Amino acid sequence: MNAINEAELVDFVKNQAVKRLRIIQSDSGKYQTVVNLTWKDGDWQLVTTRAKPREWVSLDRLARHICEKYQGQLPTITLSFNSVFLNLTEK
User: 13 is in which domain, residue-wise?
Assistant: First the structure.
């Protein structure tokens, strides 16, 4: 998967170059951001300055981050839960 940093993503959102933003729950239960760009093929994962996936422990914190950082200029956002964690909540 390709990597994108926060500054690049902010710029791409501002210039309406993000087709779709996906929030994916990882195996650890944390949430990661993956984007599709209008001018490049494939998935682009948001990473830290140390090239590690940027993760949030809760959807509340991630939602607050998205609202503050991108200020209403967002493309379609989808959310995918990890089936392991969905099964835990059913018990």
Answer: 2-90
